[in-house]
């Protein structure tokens, strides 16, 4: 008995599935490693702002000025959350990817507001977060068309 119109396409896992799942999982691993490093950098940034706030140059004419100690605590807490989300990404679960995108977005906003204190450092962390969001959004759902 022949079936017409019904075709089973591969899910992208298992033997013979091509390189789609390898690339997708490697992007997730890339995002996890970048989140761990970016979070560690934010933790160091937070500790520096809490312990030695006289290291930073303060611009009085910036719209988003806060006390450097409060900025330090914001970056410290956010950095710890980003590191934990990066570690959770190695589980491969969807909630870890969604959490990673949300926390990387929050980190981008925090580093944008951090621009007057350490502009180069903030721009590097914004770029890291942008790559993390991109890598997490590429994810495991993309398949190469074979038709």
Task: Give a structural overview.
With about 150 residues, this protein is mainly α. The protein is built from 4 helices and no strands. It has helices at about 20-50, 70-90, 95-115, 120-140. Helix 1 runs antiparallel to helix 2, helix 1 runs antiparallel to helix 4 (about 120-140) and helix 2 packs antiparallel against helix 3. The two termini are about 25 Å apart. Residues about 5-20 have low confidence and may be disordered.
List the helices and strands and how they pair.
Elements: H1 20-51, H2 68-89, H3 94-113, H4 119-138
First and last CA, distance: 25 Å
Q: Output the number of helix runs.
A: 4
Give the percentage of residues in beta strands.
under 5%
Structural class: mainly alpha
Bulk shape: elongated
Rg computed from alpha carbons, rounded to a whole number of angstroms: 20 Å
Low-confidence stretches: 5-20
Largest sheet: none
The number of distinct β-strands equals 0
Q: How would you spell out the order of helices and strands? A: HHHH
Mean of all residue-level pLDDT scores:
78
Helix content: 55-70%
Summarize the structure in short:
By secondary structure, the protein is an all-alpha fold.
Labels describing this entry:
elongated, 4 helices, mainly alpha, 147 residues
